[in-house]
Amino acid sequence: MADPRAFLTTPRRARTRRPPQERVQDWAEVDGGRPPLPLVREQASRCMDCGLPFCHNACPLGNLVPDWNALAAGDDWRAAATHLLATDNFPEFTGRLCPAPCESACVLAIDSEAVTIRNIELALADHAWEIGVDRPRPPERQTGRRVAVVGSGPAGLAAAQQLTRAGHTTTVYERADRLGGLLRYGIPPFRLEKHRLDRRLDQLRAEGTRFRTGVDVGRDLPADRLRSDHDAVLLAVGATAPRELPSPGHDLPGVRHAMDYLTQANRADQGDFPRPPLTAEGRHVVIVGGGDTAADCLGTALRQHATSVTQLDINPRPPDHRAAEQPWPVHPKVYRRTASHEEAGEEPRVFAATTVGFDPGPDGRLASVRFAHATPGDRRPEAGTERTLPAQLALLALGFTGPEPDSPLAGQLGLAFGPHGTLARDAHFATATAGVFVAGDAGRGQSLIVWAIAEGRAAAAAVDHYLRGTTDLPTPITPADHPLIP
Ligand SMILES: Cc1cc2nc3c(=O)[nH]c(=O)nc-3n(C[C@H](O)[C@H](O)[C@H](O)COP(=O)(O)OP(=O)(O)OC[C@H]3O[C@@H](n4cnc5c(N)ncnc54)[C@H](O)[C@@H]3O)c2cc1C
Ligand code: SF4
Questions:
Q1: β-strand partners of 232
Q2: Which ligand lies nearest to the CA atom of residue 329 in the structure?
Q3: Residue 56 Cα: closest atom of ligand 2
Q4: Which residues contact 93 (CB under 8 A, 6 or more apart)?
Q5: 349-350 and 308-312 as β-strands: parallel, antiparallel, unpaired?
Q6: Rounded to an integer, what distance in angstroms lies between the CA atom of residue 63 and that of residue 457?
Q7: Beta carbons within 8 Å of 125's beta carbon, 6+ residues apart
Q8: Number of H helices, E strands in the chain
Q9: Residue 110 has what DSSP assignment?
Q10: Strand 366-373 to 169-174 pairing
Q11: How many Å is the Cα radius of gyration of the chain?
């Protein structure tokens, strides 16, 4: 029996990353493998099983955290992994990439250090594959209904898996040459090795999900035809329209969107070319933006041996600890150093920095970036604070505004955009066009993998209900659900 007082006697021990000097020389994941089971058992025993599990509520998937903690603390790995897989289709992704709002909401975190929930999840996820708990689960019978899922990011894949397992004949259409959405071409291999995605896709295939890559629905295949060929269509096309920076010189050669850069680096890793055409090698690089995408550009540029990398973040440096207006259990904005920031050594970020312009050299290409201190409140450049950085490459990582507005898909299906630029849908993920549903970033706006999986699961339940008049599939969230403080 696990020690019920372990939260009083056992300190938090997170798994360690490989040394920054070592990992920056390769593209393998920064964490060398899953945490060892004895460490996981010890850390799971710190869970207080506190009765009102805020961790469970903070997780968009409703992961059964106290349950799998108790099972892991008692060495029942098979049952723990089964409990995890009951609510999370892809825990190997969330265990590596989720920002873990559950840990911010852990009751132990009120006056101590949270349980290492994400590490435990990752260990259970990887162990589930090793012991054969995470295996293909094809449906026992087919319904004869045909569903098309458009987009193969985490939302589309989660929905497809749920619908296939429910017995519907499900085909995923993806315009890219490979499957996975931002898991494939956005997030770099040093945060998610792609064999993990391939293994999951093999599982989906073994269950019966069909895939068609290289099909841009709306252009290569009219969306209304797709609708008439299927009993339902679920759009999980992401929010891939980049936010632009209208500063002077933003269209100079050498100023690029982050996703162009990250896609090429991911393609190089997957063998499409020995060296990406767009590389940071031997260049001064300036990254404009402060989120995950900017950090991924940083880690990629360091591995490509950039001469220097500076990140301009328009936000002021966050506080080291929770601010009073972000009390427990919200996931607070605090100062964090990602693995990429660790690798940079000295702090590569300039906080409260607003980009003033991009300047060309004699060859007409980008030569420098001008920035200034951003005035608190309106973020305008503060007079007299302008500075210049040399730059042959500037990467715009300013986030995404929503699904691509110029895609013919929406027009062909008669869909409307909502006030935030996302595809409009009702409380059941349904659009105004009968049998057409929307899930993931396309409906929610730029978000997180855990929300995308939750959206996929919930939208699958809505599609199942539309097709059969009833459903046994879970609905972890509604489109109206959001984090306590976004
Ligand atoms: C660089 C980067 C790093 C990130 N890091 C993290 C992280 O660490 N943790 C985290 O939780 N989240 C992270 N995110 C966010 C996360 O990746 C997204 O929220 C998530 O992938 C959204 O899933 P989705 O399925 O809705 O869309 P996407 O993953 O964007 O997938 C949409 C898919 O639809 C396809 N598609 C679009 N239009 C069509 C069409 N007409 N026909 C056919 N296919 C089409 C696209 O090609 C794409 O494959 C990151 C995002 C980026 C860009
Ligand atoms: S998916 Fe994210 S929020 Fe949910 S339990 Fe795992 S780490 Fe926590």
A1: 147
A2: 2
A3: 5
A4: 154, 183, 192, 196, 197, 449, 453
A5: parallel
A6: 13
A7: 81, 84, 88, 91, 92, 95, 134
A8: 19, 15
A9: G
A10: unpaired
A11: 23
Residue type, 26: D
Per-residue exposure over 238-262, b if at least 16 CB sit within 10 Å of its own CB, e if not: bbbbbeebebebbebebbbbbbebb
Give CA–CA dist 45/42, Å, rounded.
5
**d(C-alpha 126, C-alpha 442), whole Å:** 29
Residue 218 CA neighbour count, 13 Å, CB half: 20
pLDDT digits (tens, 9 = 90+) for 102-139: 999 999 999 999 999 999 999 999 999 999 999 999 99
Q: Which two tokens stand for residue 357?
A: 């312009």
Phi/psi at 148 (5° precision): -105, 130
* Ligand 2 neighbour 98 (Cβ under 6 A): yes
Q: Yes or no: say if 103 and 117 are a contact pair by the CB < 8 Å rule.
A: yes
From the CA of 172, which ligand is nearest? 1
| Measured distance CA(88)–CA(450) in Å, rounded | 9
Token couple for 407: 């895609």
Tell me which amino acid residue 317 is: R
Q: What is the pLDDT of residues 426-477, one digit of tens each?
A: 999 999 999 999 999 999 999 999 999 999 999 999 999 999 999 999 999 9
- pLDDT, one tens digit per residue, over 151-167 is 999 999 999 999 999 99
Tokens of 78: 């098979």
Residues paired with residue 257 on neighbouring β-strands, in sequence order? 396
Q: How far is the CA of 236 from the centre of ligand 1 (A)?
A: 9
Ligand 1 neighbours, Cβ below 6 Å, are 97-98, 150-156, 173-176, 181-182, 186-187, 216-218, 236-238, 240, 262, 292-293, 296, 407, 409, 440-442, 447-450, 452
410 DSSP 8-state letter = H
Query: Going by DSSP bridges, is the β-strand pair 393-396/284-288 parallel, antiparallel, or unpaired?
Result: parallel
Ligand 2 touching residue 102 (CB < 6 A)? yes
Residue 80 identity (one-letter amino acid): A
